[in-house]
Amino acid sequence: MDRSEQELIILEQISQILGDAIELEEVFQKAMALVGARLGVLRASLVLWDEACEQFRIAASVGLTPQEEARGRYAVGEGVTGRVIQTGEPAVISDITQHPDFLHRTTARQSATSFICMPISDGDSRVGAVSVDIPFVDESRLRADARLMKIIAGNFAQTIRIHHLVQREKDELLAENQALRDNLLKQYRFDNIIGTSPIMLDVLATIGQVASSRATVLLLGETGCGKELIAKAIHFNSPRKDKPLIRVNCGALSPQLLESELFGHIKGAFTGAVKDKVGRFEAAEGGTIFLDEVGTLTPELQVRLLRVLQEREFERVGDHRTIKVDCRVIAATNLRLEEEVRKGNFRDDLYYRLNVVSIHLPALRNRREDIPKLIDHFLDRYNKENSRDLSKISRDVLNVLLRYPWPGNVRELENTIERAVVLSTSDQFTEDLLPLQIRMYAQQTRSDVMDESIEALTAKLAEMAIKQYRGYEGEIWTLVMNDVERQLIREALDYNDGIKLRTADFLGINRNTLNKKVKVLNIEE
Q1: What separation in angstroms does the CA of 157 have from each of 28, 335, 353, 429, 490?
Q2: Helix (H) or strand (E) holding 219
Q3: Ranges of H-type helices in 250-370
Q4: Co-location of 278 and 344 in the same domain
Q5: Which of 118, 151, 113 is nearest to 134 (CA)?
Q6: Angle between helices 436-468 and 395-403 (to 10 degrees)
Q7: What pLDDT, on a 0 to 100 scale, did the predictor assign at position 191?
Q8: How far from chain centre, in Å, is Cα 199?
């Protein structure tokens, strides 16, 4: 094979290497290993700018130890490599040890060798250099090798540009991920959980104590009362906060799918298992797994969960290999597990394993003093999200929200406030912005209050009438009824502007009856 054919094969294979990978060190080592095998390269190095130390340093190498590579640092214009980067002119040297600018930083060269160093340019700027040490044969061979290295250096320029772009995106993603993590830590601080009622202060005190441990926690409470929020607060205030928090809704999947989700499966374990799958317990290694609606687990899954809690190990579906796991379990349910145990629907041994620390979350109707602060919190959030300014809530609307029983708890209150913000056209929080079921409740409440008021008033009137007309036995009925009718007709006439026909219709009596009553009761028209 002649030289030109050999170079074509080298360039073709290097192009393939550059297209198959984006890890710069891996690409360089494979490419230089190929060149070394073809041309007898002794050492090769890729020198790039390092922002941290503000110098050019060896980023990848072949034939150098880590210690030798670490010593390869150059300022712009320093030594042969620094001069090549500064000027953009290649260096082709028959014996590098005899060159006056040779610094011998890596101390890897113990005998005379030829040295080729080519600049790597990105547009008008030079980003580094690639150099090789090769045995000297003759000047013709050295010039041919230099031409080949110039082409290879040009190919590396594109790979380095892609590497820098990928690295920049990776750094941005890492920064964004850290910012999100910091935001989560800030968001789920205990003092950010809204609740100043005595019952909520007890809950916060308990989770503050339990967060630093690895004890299993059982959260009990109605749907929508904030069990997931408490689970997140426990995790993000624990030593496991930098590890995953994996959430699983045990009631949302069929038993077969849930088993695969929790424990994973191997390829071929069942129809549709086309590849191995990591389960949620495995994914939560070192962190926390939150099992919501744990009371819906089937007896078979209860047995498997019990083993994980006791032995900290499990097997994937269809596999015989045991996997050890270290993750904290936080379970939640809106069922009364003690009753489920008595009915035989839930294993008592699993209940005791889950119930190491139980936290009962109160329903919203049992901590009504927290409602105004929750309303303010949700108004701030959804005003910001929807560019609204709904802020002025009337006393009547607030009283409605305070009296409403909130069967959906905090989640229902949040949805109510979000709906009001979205539908609002001004800063006034009026009753028409509330959902239909809350408006109907408010109307029913007012009707009940009015009925109670009339009943109380008539009771008081009867009591006063008996006291006033004591001594008129046998005439009390007539006297009291005349007084009531007289006052009722006066008020009705006044309300209807003195028009008798309208007043009669208003009272539901005949006009002639009204005229008779006016005359008999001596009511001034």
Answers
A1: 12, 64, 60, 62, 101
A2: strand 217-220
A3: 255-263, 280-283, 299-311, 337-343, 348-354
A4: yes
A5: 113
A6: 100
A7: 63
A8: 27
CB atoms closer than 10 angstroms to residue 117:
26
- Percent of the chain beyond pLDDT 90? 36
Angle at 361 between CA 359 and CA 366, to 5 degrees: 140
In the numeric block, the tokens 């060159």 are attached to 99
184 domain residue, yes or no: no
Please say which residue of 344, 362, 380 terminates a domain. 362
Q: What is the pLDDT of residue 344?
A: 92
pLDDT at 507: 84
Contact (CB, 8 A) for 333 and 297: no
Q: Are 120 and 241 within one domain?
A: no
Residues 370 and 332 placed together within one structural domain of the fold = no
Cα(248)–Cα(293) distance, integer angstroms: 9
Spatial separation of the C-alpha atoms in residues 215 and 330, rounded to whole Å: 9
Q: Which residues pair with 377 in a beta bridge?
A: none
Q: Given this model, what pLDDT does residue 297 score?
A: 94
| H helices present in 336-475, as ranges | 337-343, 348-354, 371-386, 395-403, 409-423, 436-468
Q: Is residue 185 part of a domain?
A: no
Same domain, 390 and 410: yes
CA distance 495 to 491: 6
Instruction: State whether 269 and 256 are in the same domain.
Output: yes
441 CB neighbour count, 10 Å cutoff = 16
Looking at the fold, whether 370 and 334 belong to one and the same domain comes out as no
Which positions ≥6 away from 388 have C-beta within 8 Å? 382, 421, 422, 424
Say what angle helices 198-210 and 227-236 make with each other, to 10 degrees: 40
Secondary structure element (H or E) that encloses residue 216, with its range: none
For strands 288-292 and 245-249, give the pairing. Answer: parallel
Q: Give percent helix, percent strand, percent coil of the chain, each to the nearest 5.
A: 55, 15, 30
Cβ pair 71, 79 in contact under 8 A: no
Cα-based torsion angle of the residue sequence 295, 299, 301, 302 in order, rounded to the nearest 10 degrees: 60
Phi then psi dihedrals of residue 266, to 5 deg:
-105, 160
* Domain span including residue 481: 469-520
Residue given tokens 């028959």 in the structure block? 94
The torsion defined by the Cα of 488, 490, 493 and 497, in degrees rounded to 10, comes to -140
Residues of the chain with pLDDT under 50: none
Quote the CA–CA distance of 303 and 326 in Å, as a whole number: 18
Q: What is the reported pLDDT for 179? A: 64
Domain total in the chain: 4
Helix (H) or strand (E) holding 235: helix 227-236
Residue 219 CA to residue 357 CA, distance in Å, equals: 9
CA pair distance 380, 489, nearest whole angstrom: 52
> What is the H or E stretch that residue 292 is in?
strand 288-292
